[in-house]
Amino acid sequence: MSEPEETREQVSIRRAPRLTRFLVLGGVLGIVVTFILTASFPADPSIGFGPIFGYFAIYGVIGGLLLGAVVGLIFERISIRRARTLEAEVSSAGSPQPRQDIPE
User: Fold this and answer.
1) Residue 61's pLDDT is what?
2) Phi and psi of 7, rounded to 5°?
3) Rounded to two decimals, what is the model's pTM?
4) Which residue in 3, 5, 56, 63 has the fewest CB atoms around it within 10 Å?
5) pLDDT tens-digit profile of 82-92?
């Protein structure tokens, strides 16, 4: 077996935000704001509240998704600026040997 080799490399460490959470939160916020705004005004009796809310919810969700994406990308840029560069030790010991305790 060969002797393990150890080298040092510069690595960048940062906490990246999860964009999916911002998108979901923005979509939910869009639906809530749409519901509040739709309920604030009297509905047309010939159409009803449900169809009006459903129609405007399409725009509310899209607006919320866009807002969530923008906020998520702003946090992404902030995390890139706050990234730290550290020195990491990398070791390699050649090719790994198969385990003997697992039956094939």
Assistant:
1) 97
2) -130, 160
3) 0.69
4) 3
5) 888 888 887 77
Where is 71: in which H helix or E strand? Answer: helix 49-81
Q: Write out the DSSP string of 19-49.
A: HHHHHHHHHHHHHHHHHHHHHHSPPPTTT-H
- In angstroms, the CA 85 to CA 87 distance is 7
Counting DSSP H helices and E strands in the chain, the numbers are 2, 2
Query: 85 forms bridges with which residues in the sheet?
Result: 12
DSSP assignment, residue 18?
-
Tracing tokens 């990398």 back to the chain, one arrives at: 90
Which is it for the CA torsion 95, 101, 102, 104, positive or negative?
A: positive
Reading the block at residue 13, the tokens are 């460490």
